[in-house]
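Researcher: Let's try something more involved. This one mixes different molecule types, so please make sure each is placed in the same coordinate frame as the others.
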Amino acid sequence: MRIMVSGGAGFIGSNFVHYWTEQHPGDTVVVYDKLTYAGNPANLVGLDVEMVIGDITDTEHLTRALRAARADCLINFAAESDNSRAVRDARPFAVSNVLGAQSLCEAALRSEVPRVHHVSTCEVFGDLALDDPSAFTEDSPYRPNTPYAASKAGADHFVLAYGRTHGLAVTISRSANNYGPRQYPEKNPPLFITDALRGRRMTLYTNHHYRREWMAVADHAAALDLILRNGAAGRTYNIGTGDERSAMDMALFVARTLGLDREQAIRIVADRPGHDRRYLLDSSAVRAELGWAPSTPFAQGMAATVRWYQQNAEWWEPLAAR
Ligand SMILES: NC(=O)c1ccc[n+]([C@@H]2O[C@H](COP(=O)([O-])OP(=O)(O)OC[C@H]3O[C@@H](n4cnc5c(N)ncnc54)[C@H](O)[C@@H]3O)[C@@H](O)[C@H]2O)c1
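Model: All components are placed in one shared frame. Result:
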C-alpha cells in the first residue's frame, strides 16, 4: 500500500507512522506536514518515510503531493490540537481544522485517492456529567463546547459531506485521550511529567476530579490500521478503552512513578473556561465489527511513557524551554 499521512510529524501521527512501518514494512509511507510548533521531524528519525512539508489548507499543493505519491490511502492527523491555545485564539483552529478538512477532501477527490480516513475526537460530543451512566455512541449528537471541539466537529461534517455528496470513500474515528512518547509537552501527561522531571510542581485546575478516558497511542494506531483495512466507507468509529482517570489520578501516578511526595509535587490553580467534565466513548462497534481491543494496561503503558520522557530529555528539553 502507498499511504500518505497528513500531520504525521505530530504526536499521534508519528506514533502511527512508527506503528505502520513496523507492521507493514513493504508499504510506502509519505508524511505531509506543515511542521507547526507541534510537528517535529525528529519524531520520524530512523524511519524509511518520505517527508513533504505542506499545509493541508493548500489544496493545489496537497493535490500535487497526493498525485506524486500515487497514494492509495490518505489518513489525516493534521490539526491544531491544544484546547488551551484555542481558548486564547480560535482562528488557527478554524483554518487548519475546518478549512483544512474541506481542502483535504477536495485534494483527495481531485487526485482520486481511493480511501480517506480522518482522525477526530470524543470532544465533538460535548461532555457528560460525572455520574452519567451513559457513554457516547457513534450516533450521539454533536454538541461541542470548546473552540477546539467546534473546529473538530466542523471538520467531521465536511468529511462526511464529501463522502455523501461526491462519493469520496471516507471513514472517521473519534478517539479518547492518548498518552505515549513524543507528545509536545504543552498538554498532559507530558506537561506533568516534564514539570516533575525539572523539579517543578505539576499544575492542576481546581476541577481536577474531572475525568478523561485514556488510551495508549499504540493501541489507537492498531485500531486505525483495522479501520483503514476493513472499515466500511461512510462509517464512523469510536475508539476508547473505558479506562477513566481524573487529572489528579494522572498527576499522582506520575508522582508515584518518579518517587515524589504528593504535597511537593502538585499545585492547584484556577480553572480554564469551558472545561469539559468528562467524556466516555461506547467503542463496541470497532470491537465487534473489526475485532479491535486495547492491549496495553494503563499502569504498564503510563509507566513506560514516564520512562520515555525520563530517558529522552534531549527530545523535550528544547521544546519545554520555548
Ligand atoms: N492527543 C490526543 O489525545 C487526541 C485525542 C483525540 C483526537 N486527537 C486528534 O488526533 C489528531 C492528532 O493529534 P495530536 O495530539 O497528534 O496533535 P499534534 O498537535 O501533536 O500534531 C498535529 C500535527 O499536525 C500538523 N499540522 C497542523 N496544522 C497543519 C496544517 N494546516 N497542515 C499540515 N499539517 C498541519 C502539525 O505540524 C503536527 O505535526 C488531531 O486531529 C487531534 O484532534 C488527539
